[in-house]
Amino acid sequence: MTERMLALGLMSGTSCDGVDAALVETDGIDFVRCGAALSFDYPREFRQRLRAALGDAAAGEALAVELTDRHAEAVRALIAKAGIAAIDLAVVGFHGQTILHEPEQHRTLQIGDGARLARAVGIDVVNDFRAADMAAGGEGAPLAPLFHRALAIGLEKPLAVLNLGGVGNATWIGEDRDGAMRLLAFDTGPGNALIDDWAMLHTGEPVDRDGRLAGVGQVDASLLGRLLVHPYFARPAPKSLDRDAFDASILAELAPADGAATLVAFTAATVARGAQLFPEPVKQWLVTGGGRQNPAIMAELRRRLDRPVVPVEAVGWNGDQLEAQAFAYLAVRSLKGLPLSLPETTGVKRPTRGGRIHRRS
What we know:
This protein is α/β, with parallel strands linked by helices and 361 residues long. The protein has 13 helices and twelve strands. The chain folds into two domains: 5-140 and 352-358, Nucleotidyltransferase, domain 5 (2-Layer Sandwich), CATH 3.30.420.40; 145-307, Nucleotidyltransferase, domain 5 (2-Layer Sandwich). The chain is 35% helix and 23% strand. Helix 3 (64-82) runs parallel beside helix 4 (114-121) and helix 10 (256-275) packs across helix 11. The longest helix is centred in the last third of the chain and has 20 residues, at 256-275. It is globular and about 60 Å long.
């Protein structure tokens, strides 16, 4: 039997609101048992500084130590919650905070000091998950598809896993005639980022909670059409993009509710357009990330997609922790020398190993 390891994954997404931490027992291949998890919120002031640093490498690096120490707090809190000791863990998967992601310029930056984290928590750490893929010609994202594939064993296929974080990304999972699973993954377009920014600007809230603002607005079809002209959508998959790749300033004259409704339609329309790239139509969409908690987004997805659209909880997954779990799984793959990315997931030329290992002492 392939060795199973207990790993802890950490994820700080483009919403910049905090750290998700999750325990996973896995062999890094097809065995996955998910355990305790928690979300560790950033203080408002740190969140603001982190958000202001997006796109600015120097400003991001200046926050790396503080960000690492906040991740260490999350690790200690989860270990205490689970009633285990650091010695029980084989590895921590530390994604860090993406400050910029520009694959066409061969640039990506995730801040966070892996060596510092390893010393602070007394556990080996894997970080820097994306660099090797980009050096080998890949997009460096998305990285969760191999984890999605492991979770999807036993589910009816083809299916799609749609992650709606700041950016939207989709994993198509199918099977060939021999039962081997097939993958295709790519960023679909905006997820929640533009909607979150719009809500903050017009309501002072970091999100459009429960889709209340968008729910009373009207979509401006003309402006939506202009947003959809972006050249990204003409690129073949696999492909990826940055949180701030799209400019919503053309909506500036709209009423707050109408702007929110138009941005919800933009997110859903780009998912529907992405579905046209799938090798085969899917039987269902499983939605994870914060977007699944926005009824306006879910309703618009159901309107535009001709298949069932359900939150991942419908199949027993944890949509709040799926990405943190993914980096626990990928950290184990890194320790075992297994690929983290494939030509079908990032466009890399060949299956590519990744991650940088930092020993606890």
